[in-house]
Amino acid sequence: MRHVTVRLSLEAPQFHPFVGELLADPVVSVQRVHRADLLDDGTLVVLAEGHGDRERFESIVGAADPVRECSLSGERTWYAYLSIDPTEFARTLMQTRRSSDVFVKWPISIVDQKTVEVTYVGHDSGFREKLAELPEAIDVEIVRTGTSYPDAAQLLEKLTERQREIFTVAVEQGYYADPRRATHQELADELYCSAANVGEHLRKIEATVFRELRALDGTPDLDGNDAASSVSDR
């Protein structure tokens, strides 16, 4: 498995005007985005980290029409949970991220008013396709590439929301303990589905996880592409 770190530069108003106002404000510093997801109802939810004047941050966000909800925790360094009605640009970008086999290694670092630094993790063959899918309005600069060894969070990124739920219950109920303490039927009773459905999901989960772990032995992809050469054509 490989990683490619890129700097993506774009005009903040393409997300929302209030984003540009936040990043330009002299008393508010938004440093990282720890998570961003597009929900099934079309809402964009974001967990961001920052420091500075919390009241100023809340004032800017509170006056922004697209923000449905904002909650903050912490003092000197604080975390903001935002629920937002996304622009079409932001929706397209998030849907592209969802559909790709290459995934984001969180957090995303905010470099300046127009630039963020993102690390993508995946197999060599996926990087060129991933960057080619980004909207043309985004300028891409490759910062570094290298070998990446997946941690638990990265592996779980490859699973669907339902697969993560089933995997969590399976671990909690002792399905992967030795000796095994739960059957497919017992997991099905907990998850309100059939034993056959649990078995199918677990097989897909295990296939995904073991495919990603296989990268740890340095086995190259069949096409033999190098990540750096793959993405440099954009």
Automatic annotation (TrEMBL):
Domain HVO-0513-like N-terminal: 16-147
Domain HTH bat-type: 159-210
Keyword DNA repair part of the UniProt annotation: no
Pfam family, one: HVO_0513_N
Keyword set, alphabetical order: Transcription, Transcription regulation
Chain segments annotated as transmembrane: none
Name under which the protein is recorded: HTH DNA binding domain-containing protein
